Amino acid sequence: MNVAPSISPALDTAKPLSIAVMAMGGQGGGVLVDWIVALCESQGWAAQSTSVPGVAQRTGATVYFIEVLPLPPGAPKGLRPILSLLPVPGEVDIVIGAELMEAGRAMQRGFVTPDRTTLIASSHRHYAVAEKQSPGDGIGEAENVFAAAAAASKRFIAFDMAELAEKAGSVVSAVLFGAVAASKTLPFERAAFEATIRAAGVGVEPSLRAFAFGYDGALAEASHGPAHTAFKAPIAKRYPALAPVGNAAYDALVARAQKEFPHPAHDMIGAGLQRVVDYQDVAYGKEYLDLLAGILALDKANDGEARGYVLTRTAAKYIATAMAYDDVFRVADLKTRGSRFERVRKEIAAAPDQLVYTTEYMHPRMEEVCGALPAGLGRFIESRPGLFKALDKVVNRGRRVQTGTIRWFLPLYFLGGMRRFRRGTLRHRNEVAHRDAWLAKVKAAAPKNYDFAVELLQVRRLVKGYSDTHARGTSKFDKVMLGAAKVEGRPDAAEWVRRLREAALKDEDGIALSGALKTIDSFV
Amino acid sequence: MAERSFAKEVRDLELGAGEEFRGEGILALTKALLQSGVGYVGGYQGAPISHLMDVLNDAQDTLNKLGVQFSNSASEAAAAASLAASVMYPIRGAVTFKAPVGVNVASDALANLTSGGVTGGALIIIGEDYGEGSSIMQERSHSFAMKSQIWLLDPRPNLESIVKSVEDGFELSEVSNTPVMLEVRIRACHVHGSFIAKDNKPPAFTLQQALQAPVRDTSRIVLPPASYLHEKEKIEQRWPNAVKFIKERKLNEFFDGDLTDLGIIVQGGMYNGVQRALERLGLADVWGKTRVPIYCMNVVYPVVDDEVADFCATKKAVLIVEEGQPEHIEQSIATILRRRDINTKIYGKGVLPMAGEYTADVMLKGVRDFLLGAAPGVLSDQVRAPNQPTISDDPRIKALAGTVPPRPPGFCTGCPERPIFAAMKLVEQELGPHHIAGDIGCHLFACLPPFNLGATTMGYGLGPASNAAFNVKTDKKSIAMIGDGGFWHNGLTTSIGNAVYNKHDSVIVVVDNFYSSATGGQDILSSRADNPERSTQNPITKAVEGVGVKWVRQIDRTYDVGKMRDTLKEALTTDTPGPKVIVASSECMLNKQRRVKPQFNKAVKGGVRMVRERFGVDEDVCTGDHACIRLSGCPSLSVKRTDDPLKDDPVAAIDNTCVGCGNCGEVSEAAVLCPSFYRADIVYNPTGWDRFVAKLRSGVIGFLQRRRARNRIAFA
């Protein structure tokens, strides 16, 4: 019979310190684990780490697990702890989330418990395919992770470590290592942590910078007092002021809007007015306010004041969107602006001494060309399939436009300038007709069911983009409007339109939408 | 060039007697082989032992110095067959591969090897890919060991035990003339720990000696009547010899405890889990002391009847901890006890689940239920009736179910396989859905969102073969995927040759990314890199033509989505009989970046003019439909919520990890998406001419921009 080497006749009560690292493949979680192991070993502790690389190294979620404990003074030779290869739910001391949702996953798996777990996470988001692919907004709510962390953890330290890592020219692991050091969950001095990074010998300077950012960041979080980092919304809608800009014609519109429209709609009108004027001209802004005035009259007549003028505010948003539809002139205009050249440099983080040239990927089809022609000519071509097809053969191919060269800039610039002829184009006629039909339905509905009318306005959200995307969006829009017509008159009509709209945003092929429409057909 | 370099770590392989080795399980395994005087090593990469192959590759110098021959085997079958060198000669050999798939592939060679038996120690190190993170079907290699009579070692998951097992394994193999499998689970392969090293030993008998003085003996060849005798030999000689050795050398371990009428019988690999469960129940400590006696089977096959009987004889009840199914050990122990009329109650499957990984909580529950049934008095009241609600019941934790997204593995940033599937999706939009057979490799990720392409996967290199039945006349051909790794593993014959011979009117896409990428970027026959140790640069198209394919297309840049789409369409619509093979080639981006990035940075530092490409999205042009993402899934192409009050949905955004592969632009062009993508060419260290031209351009462009800005109101 073997007898395990022992330090006392009774069972020893020493427990290892458990650390789980939740990361995505490619984030450098392994480096962090190696540092922690090396650090503990350098301090005379026993350390064991495990991981499951496998296919998880390809951007999938993965868990690294570490157990460490000090060897007792005077330990018999050969004394080695028996450590777990798997995280034990309820018995993890430190959970490190290299991304916010991975911290959430740790809580789902029961690794984070209020009696002992310090949860250290980078609050940045790296969206999963499931979140990104939705035609609507499929992003998981970060707030829920913060709420869960407040419930599940003993301490929760979170801040955007990816940003700091980038600033330091390093990776998120180094920032996390700094945060672990500052959390004092491992009883070692800061110098020991830094010595570990130096000893590892790879990318030492940037790693140390990132480490320091992480250390300071965690201290700053701790100085806020409570043991749990609170959720701060990362982005809010920014409404431009409904205010004069020094252009007499535009300022007159602003004055009119301020006088004519109720205050609750001002922020949205500010945004809408700027959009349509930027899109076309000041006269287009007047058109916008005229359309909106029609809605406002209806709103007032139907107790809009008590409802906070939701109808008008919603119309301010979607009429602007409908008026500023996407066409070739718009794209050409946006792509050739000076402000855009500046923004690109910023977005790609170009240094001042570097040159930047952009190439645009454009693929006009005959449909877009016809739309940009004077209405008569456009219709003439459209009604002759043979001609249309022949011309499409010439037009319909991908074009790579190098906007930074004079040869390519000029035609694009010229195209952007053509917007002044937009009102006469076939596309504009079609858009106006489509818009008017939609608004007519809204207006007809408002006196009967205010909420239903508001929902009809919001269906506009489905119309997006150019070419194929635009066609797909418009067909969904049409389907939802048809469905809406079927439920019109029911007390829950508004609720049904909302459901249809949400279904339409769920998947590309409109499977959820077809399902919802079938449900409607089953009871109407 | 493999993804992970062990160039630094392999220096530890030179450690001498008495020095402490610290590192990962796979590295310790390699060291153990060298300490055992191994003469040759082979293997096929695959998780979890891929890195073992990488370590061996990087350890070439050490191996050469000792005179150890190392092959990158073409497949697990090739690796297993190489153990034939130990049949007639007293040379120790070891091979390694992933299990149980590797064992399946190697089965023919393994069965033949085992029938005739071995003279030199033959060790098969299998990385048992089971449980969390496993990429394969959940099965046990144990069954295979039993049916062929290969001894199976399952050491405790610490480096000391693993290293000892390698040394014991060779001896066991030699005394019983039987190959020995050494099973290491996925976490044990990557466990970091330490052991005290011994000196490396050069092989006692060399391959050169064998070739100089060849030996043969027909009684070792699997040919009747010898093969009938082999079976008898296995039972009458090899098995008893093995059992005797295992007993005498105490390969299995007993851990004493004061609760002598209880016991736990455990596979070595599960030992740490059992010990932790006992510790949580207050019956053990972290240093290995336990109150419940433990019989730890470091050899799980054959079972040593006497040891089991002795352990159980004095006990009221024992728990058998055996992960996976069928429960071979439990069945065997039940037979042993019944035959000897020992009435110890057996707990096993029942308190522990028949299927699934024995995670910490599963183990805790199993051990607790065993004790509750067998000896409730040893548990504290609190353990007996835990009534604290767990944190998982908190509604805030439950709410995470709708928030935390699944995150399965997917294509890396800039992966050249992405545009192949984007093109395939575009073809499907035009021609309707097709039956698509997947294969093993990164390209199998296409069966997940956003591509959702691929219906089955039957095994490595078997994609096209798995479409063989669909060899019927119809206007929709079947499509099969196969990677370059699978192609060279066995696909050339099993899939391509098979389709040619049977005149299969189908489409086969060979995804050629220059490496065996899913396993970490090892070189293969068609790799484009110069590899001094191996023969590379053997084109796939030549091999395909060589076995008789008439319709072959080579695409040298998979990122050309339009060309990819048109080629696929042509393949699906052509009247040419037989298989249509498209070889879609572009370098694995992980490997490419590892190769190119340092060169680029060095050039930039040296003041050389360099151009870096990356993609971006014009936020005000993007309307947030995300069609581009549904044709990509690239990690660097993401979304962001916008502060624009007129936009409801997040817009597309590309982050700084973009490698400028071009997929975004090509896809938006081919699929006629919105023109919000742009490619930015960033010129580092521009020349004087560059600056002159740029000045000229910005002069003209700036003038026009200012002119327009003066005559309008713009807010964007």
UniProtKB/TrEMBL annotation, chain A:
Residues 25-215 form the Pyruvate/ketoisovalerate oxidoreductase catalytic domain. One of its GO terms (molecular function) is oxidoreductase activity, acting on the aldehyde or oxo group of donors. Signal peptide: none annotated. InterPro entries: DUF6537, Pyrv/ketoisovalerate_OxRed_cat, Pyrv_flavodox_OxRed_cen. Pfam families: DUF6537, POR. It comes from the Bacteria. Keywords: Oxidoreductase, Pyruvate. Residues 266-481 form the DUF6537 domain. NCBIfam families: PRK08312.1 (NF006179). This is Indolepyruvate oxidoreductase subunit beta family protein. It comes from Pseudolabrys taiwanensis. The lineage of its organism: Bacteria, Pseudomonadati, Pseudomonadota, Alphaproteobacteria, Hyphomicrobiales.
From TrEMBL, chain B:
The keyword Metal-binding applies. InterPro entries: 4Fe4S_Fe-S-bd (IPR017896), HACL1-like (IPR045025), THDP-binding (IPR029061), TPP_enzyme_TPP-bd (IPR011766). This is Indolepyruvate ferredoxin oxidoreductase. Keywords: Metal-binding, Pyruvate. The keyword Zinc does not apply. One of its GO terms (molecular function) is thiamine pyrophosphate binding. It comes from the Bacteria. It holds the Pfam family TPP_enzyme_C. It comes from Pseudolabrys taiwanensis. One of its GO terms (biological process) is small molecule metabolic process. Residues 613-644 form the 4Fe-4S ferredoxin-type domain. CDD domains: TPP_IOR_alpha.
